[in-house]
Each structure stands twice: as C-alpha cells, then as structure tokens.
Specification:
Elements (H helix, E strand, L loop, with lengths): L2 E4 L6 H8 L9 E5 L6 H9 L3 E6 L5 H9 L3 E6 L18 E9 L5 E6 L12 H6 L2 H13 L10 H24 L1 H7 L7 E3 L1 H9 L2 H6 L4 H14 L1 E3 L30
Parallel strand pairs: 1-2, 2-3
Antiparallel strand pairs: 3-6, 4-5, 5-6, 7-8
Helix pairs in contact: 6-8
Protein name: Transposase
InterPro entries: RNaseH-like_sf, Transposase_11
Pfam families: DDE_Tnp_1
C-alpha cells in the first residue's frame, strides 16, 4: 500500500456520492478507510476498478453478509458480494449477476462488542486479521477532529441565518483550527525535550490552546502587536498547558448518545465576536 487515506463518517447515499468526488485524489494501491454508511456494491466496485483498496466498518443489523459472517464465528472470511437487485442497473458497468470478492474481518472490542469490517485486502498472509483493529483505529484522529469542531470550536453555533454568515463562521472555525495545528506542529521538538524523564508523554491541551488563540487572533490579523511577540506568547502558553497521553484507555460506548441532541438555537440577537 502506497498510502492510507482516512474518510469521514457517513450515513447516507449522498455522502457516498460526495466521497467519490475525491477519486481524482486517489492513487493506485492507496488504502482508504471509511466509517459506517459507505459500503455498497457500486461504491466498493469504484475502488476495485481504480486499483484502490478500501476498509469500511459495516453494521450487522442491515448488512446481510455481515450478519451471516458473525453467526459463523470466524475471524476472517473471503466471500462474494452481489449488487442489490432492487436498484436500477442503467448506466452501470455491472449487472444483477455480477459479484465482487471481498473480505470480512471480525473485531472484538474490550467491552464485549463485536465490529465487522469489510475490505478489498484479500491476502490473509500479507494482511492478517489481527492487524485490522489497529489499522481501523487510525481513523480516530478524524473522530477527535469532529469533536474539536463541534464541541470546542462550536462550529454549529452560527451567528446569523444567511448563507454568507454561515460560510463565514465555518471558514473562521477552520482557520482557527489550522492556525492552532501550525503552532502545535512547530512545538514538536520542545515537547520532546519537555517530556524527558516523565512517566507519560504530554501534548498541548487542545481546548485551552483554542481559547488562547481566539483571544489573540485579532492582534494577529490586525497587526496590533508584533507578530513574533504574539506567536512567542502563544507558544509559551501552549507549552505551559499540556496534558498527559494515556495510551490504551477505553471508554464505554454509549449507543444512541447523540440521537436526542438538539441543534443549537440561533437567536437574532446572538452575535458572538468570533
């Protein structure tokens, strides 16, 4: 595999179509990792046609071959995937009798839950089943970034109703996030030195770093203070406020935790500065 690409979480056909807009970025022998909602015959077929591998989490409730796989009790199984006969085959390069060879992987989680992954990586000698739990976990950075956008940068709390207001708020949040990442990356060497002789490695506290940055972004943009001085102050604050990295921690999954979550209410007199 030449590289690994990580795709965002999805639950709808529309988002599969959006994902396929990125095919011009795919390279032969890439591996693209997806969350639930993406697996379908046509979607996986697009990867195989382009010599691009994929790894996707599937639901056992609605994915028949995954349900049968779990019932069989195996850790890994190469099987045939067929298109849904209820869908139209007009303008498709496959028909109702076509099939793809795919591999199903069982992943047992510490809490007793079972996840099923579907992949085009068929070689069990080169890609043993035990490697897939760690491989799929590489998506975790995508999930934590969602948490940053929604809960720390409050990207859903728009300051207006118009398209311009919403786009402005969104791009502002992305700008803050990118700027924070640039500063954190510049502190890599300092963090290595700071972590010497400590029980845990420490990283910058993301939540606090966003707060420090948002309080000073106007100074950076309006040049109200020397840029070098502001950046040095931010780096000092970032290094002073770090948290330990505790590996192999597990948190019990709360199924349906966010289903009852309501959208933030935007009132017409709500105008946050940033």
């Amino acid at each position: 595999m030449s590289s690994i690409l990580l795709q965002f979480h999805s639950l709808s056909k529309g988002e599969r179509e959006l994902a396929l807009r990125h095919t011009n970025r795919w390279k032969s022998r890439d591996l693209i990792i997806y969350d639930r909602g993406y697996p379908s015959y046509g979607f996986i077929n697009e990867h195989i046609k382009r010599d691009v591998d994929c790894l996707i989490r599937v639901t056992t409730a609605s994915f028949a071959i995954a349900k049968n796989f779990i019932a069989g009790g195996k850790k890994s199984l190469i099987t045939e995937m067929k298109p849904n006969n209820r869908h139209s085959f007009k303008d498709k390069d496959y028909h109702k009798d076509s099939f793809l060879k795919v591999r199903l992987i069982r992943v047992d989680l510490p809490g007793g839950e079972v996840e099923v992954l579907i992949t085009t990586l068929l070689d069990s000698q080169r890609y043993p089943a035990k490697m897939f739990r760690e491989l799929y976990f590489l998506r975790w950075g995508v999930e934590t970034f969602y948490n940053e956008l929604k809960n720390k940068l409050k990207v859903e709390h728009f300051t207006g109703y118009s398209q311009v207001s919403i786009q402005q708020d969104f791009f502002c949040a992305i700008f803050i996030s990118n700027l924070q990442s640039v500063i954190v990356n510049d502190l890599t060497d300092e963090l290595v030195i700071q972590n010497q002789d400590k029980q845990y490695n420490y990283k910058v506290n993301t939540n606090l770093s966003y707060g420090f940055l948002k309080n000073r972004v106007l100074e950076l943009l309006c040049e109200q203070a020397p840029l070098d001085k502001v950046f040095q102050e931010l780096e000092t604050l970032f290094l002073k406020h770090t948290i330990p990295i505790r590996n192999n921690r597990t948190v019990e999954r709360q199924v349906g935790k966010y289903r009852a979550r309501t959208r933030p209410k935007v009132t017409k007199n709500q105008r946050d500065a940033i």
